[in-house]
Each structure stands twice: as C-alpha cells, then as structure tokens.
Amino acid sequence: MHMVKNRLAVILAALCGIVWFTCCSSLPRDIQRPPSTVIEDGQATLLGRTFAEELANHPGRSGVNLLENGLDAFVSRVVLTNLAERSIDVQYYMYHQDTVGKLLVDQLIKAADRGVRVRMLIDDIYGSDADDVWTTLDAHPKMEVRLFNPFDRGASKNLQWITRFKEVNYRMHSKSFTVDNQATIVGGRNIGDEYFNANPELAFADLDLLAVGPVVPGVSEAFDQYWNSDWAYPASALAPPSDSGRLEDLRLRMAAFADSENAAAYIEALKNSNLANTLRAGRSQFEWAEAKVIHDSPEKKERGDNWESELLISQLWPIIQKATEELIIVSPYFVPGKKGAEALCDLCAKGVKVRILTNSLASNDVSAVHAGYAKYRKQLLKGGVELFELDEKVKNVAQKKFTWLPGLSKSSLHAKTMVLDRKAMFVGSMNLDQRSLNINNEICILFFNPEIAVKSAEAFDLNIEKMAFRLELDTAENGSGSIRWHLKTADGEVVYDSEPYVGFWKRMGVGLIRLLPVESLL
C-alpha cells in the first residue's frame, strides 16, 4: 500500500502542468553532518574471528547464503545484531514501526547500550511518520539516525510532490544491513511485517542475501557514500531533538513489546531457528563464490557528464549480455522500456532462453506499473521472451512456500533476482522498471556459484507453471495477435483470454494509464 501511494503521487504530480516548477525549500541549512566511515578492524571482532578460518580456506571468495523465507531473514538480522561488537549500519527505503520494526529497534538499542556504534539511514518517503522514534534514537550517544532526501516538515507532503517534484521524486531504494564490516544482508526486503510474513493480510515473497568476506567492505563503502552525502539529514535537524528521558521511555516500551503476545511468535521462532543456532554456534551455512557489489551513486539525481555509465544497470548489463544459454529474471515491477525490450529480444535472437516472472495485474500492488509493462508484452513474446505472471489465487499453495507463520491470506511477488547461465546470480533492491533503472538509488550483489544458481534455476523450472500464468501470443491470419494466459491446475490447463481475476473497470483504468506519458516515472 505504501508503494502504491508513492507511485500514484508521482503520476499525479507528473500530470500537473507544473512539474518543472520548484519552490524555495525551507529545509534546514548549514546543518552539522559529522562525517564517519566504516570501521577498519572488524577482523578482530567476534564475527571476524568466527569466519576467519573458512575465509582463509577460500581466498578471494565470499560466503553467501540465500534468505528465502521470512524467518531466516528476520533471525539473521537479530542474531547479527546480538553478535555485534563495533558497528551496525542500517540502510532502508521503508522502516515501519510494526512488530518487525519494533523488535529490531529493541535489539539495536540493546546493541548501542553495549557500546556498539549504530548508524541508521532511512529514506524519508515515510520517515516523517516516525520522527519521534528517529529523534529519540538519535539522542542515544552511540546511535545516529539520518533521513535521506527529506520532505520539509513545515509544508504539506502532498503539495511537495508538486512544488518540489524534481527533488522528492528521487528516492533511496537501497537496502542493506551490515555488522562490524564482517557480515551483510542485501536484498529486496524493507523493514516491515509484510516483508517478513508477519502481516496476516499481506505477505511479499521476497529474497535477501547474507554474505561474509571480501564483498562486505564494498557494501560498507556504498553505505558511507550515502551516509556522508548532502542528501542525508540528521533526524534531529528535521524535528525537535529528543532527550535522555524519552530515550529511556522508548527503551522500556520496546523491551515490553518484545515480551508481549504480539511478538511471541517471532521470539519463539528465533529460539527454534536452525540458522540462528548455527550462527550463534559459530558455524556457517555458506556457499563460497566470487562476488561483487554494484550500486548507484548517491548523486544519481545530479546526472553529470557520465551519469548513464555510472548507473547500476549500466554496470550490470555488460555481464547480462554475456549470457549464452539462459537468463531468468524475477522482478515484481517490470517496465523494460523500448531499449530494454529490444535488448531482451536481441538476447533471444542469439539463442539465449529468456524467462521473466513478474506480477499479474491481480497480484500487482501498483496497477500503474502494470500499465507500463503491458505495452511491451506482445513485443517481448514475438521476440521469443517467455513471460510468466504470478497467479493471485496461488496464495493457498504459496503459504507453504513463502511463509513460516500461520494465517497468510495473500502473497505478492517482491523478490528481485536474476540467474545467468545457471552459473551466476544477482540479488538486490533493483526492479527492472524505469524508476529503479534511472531515478531511484539501488544496490545488488552479483555472485558466481553454479551450485546455488543451478538450484535456483531448477526451483524456477519446477514451480513456475504451478505458481504463475504462462503468456502466449495467439496470432491471427491478418497478423494481429492476442495474449492468452495459460494456467496448469490439478484438473488440467485453464486458458484466459483477458487479464485473469480482474474486472472491466480495473482493466480499463490500466488501459487509460497506458495512454499517459508517465512511463519514465514507473
């Protein structure tokens, strides 16, 4: 829902005839941003010592572990926080003050109380919703909270989508969690119940990567660039500063919440998690791979002379183009644009099998993005690309695959990943849509490990037609074509000749959006 509001606000602002008008911002000036950088002696920490022997046995390689379910994704962050001795760097697009968010705040406060330096960098798309929490955490002597590209607290946020459109349209979508410069988690999850399967109404099938070794300093370096940029504002510069009294009150409230019934399922899962117990015992579940961090610059908005060559996709695409056999793409929001669609068709023409899984109109939480994608479907299908769209009604099956808590009633695709030639994988925050490619800041880890890549590709092979519609272009004698949606069920194959599970008005609304000049914003 939050992403929906953001995208709709952008579209409405773009449709106003004054998107190029920028009013004078009253954001604070001459603020103090004490620079800080990653710690250099992380190898001496408990985490550094824990993995030292295995890293020595795999020179030049990083340990990687895919976090496919909400339990592992949650406990990895909590256990790393518990093991932290020197530093924790937290970077997220959205950080909700719900079950997951509060439990993590509780752990971060406890780490800071032990003397661990905690830096939190949160995009301000919804940051103002928790100003009291951010300023209170910022009052802790070992914690700093900065908000990226903030809104003016003294003006209407909705109005700023019009009057400051060029500024506020630029968002930090990167997501990373790094401890002692020794272990990091990078991927698609924001901090919120729906991303960790704790929301009984909505769960996003998502993916993170836990990594140790040489790839970690690259994530830390990227964090430092964002942290020390002019786009990052201390929370206490945007809202009235807090004090030690409010900090103590927050500390007690978060601790009480961790002991409450609302958190019981998470705490019990944490105790029983195999991954948590393995990490605590100093044993790893890592596979070893050559890995590299690829990320956008925090100055992406400035668009200097070489801005296109510095984009994450510009760094990643030459690697994708080297695919000779197969490319699997999973992207919840997929708007390839003219160049992207042509490039994917060119890969097919070279003999590469290209398969793409994205959300269907029914499962997509942002219908406007579906409009941007739908206009390229026929071109992609004609070019040989295989398209799959998530079956909205698969939630009863997906419950067994995507969640570890009971009560899940809806599942939507949110993971961002690629598999190249069953040899390499990409995991990160970047959708293959125009917003991620050209506007927002993104980060990913690309790693080369055939064993993991093969397992992921085989899982795709095994499950794709159980979980998604296969699209087919039915070409008539006159050359025109219509899309058919094929779904395999226990009773046989079902074929739809229009967007499955949606009514006339929703289809019409998407059709109208396709006519608008907003693709670059999607």
Structural overview:
- The chain is an alpha+beta fold and 522 residues long.
- The strands form two sheets. The chain has an 18-stranded mixed β-sheet, sandwiched between helices. A two-stranded parallel ribbon has the order 7-14.
- Helix 4 crosses helix 10.
- The two termini are 16 Å apart.
- The relative contact order is 0.14.
Descriptive tags:
522 residues, alpha+beta, 18-stranded mixed β-sheet, two-stranded parallel ribbon, 21 helices, 39% helix, 21% strand
Short description:
With 522 residues, this protein is of the alpha+beta class.
Topology of helices and strands:
Elements: H1 2-15, H2 46-57, E1 62-67, H3 70-83, E2 87-92, H4 99-113, E3 117-123, H5 131-138, E4 143-148, H6 157-163, H7 165-168, E5 176-179, E6 183-187, E7 203-205, E8 208-212, H8 216-227, E9 232-234, H9 235-238, H10 244-258, H11 264-272, H12 274-280, E10 287-295, H13 307-310, H14 312-320, E11 326-330, H15 337-349, E12 353-359, H16 367-374, H17 377-382, E13 386-390, H18 395-402, E14 411-413, E15 417-420, E16 424-428, H19 434-438, E17 443-448, H20 450-467, E18 468-475, E19 481-489, E20 492-496, H21 504-514
Parallel strand pairs: 2-3, 3-4, 7-14, 11-12, 12-13
Antiparallel strand pairs: 1-8, 1-10, 2-5, 4-9, 5-6, 6-8, 10-17, 11-15, 13-18, 15-16, 16-17, 18-19, 19-20
Helix pairs in contact: 3-4, 3-12, 4-10, 16-21
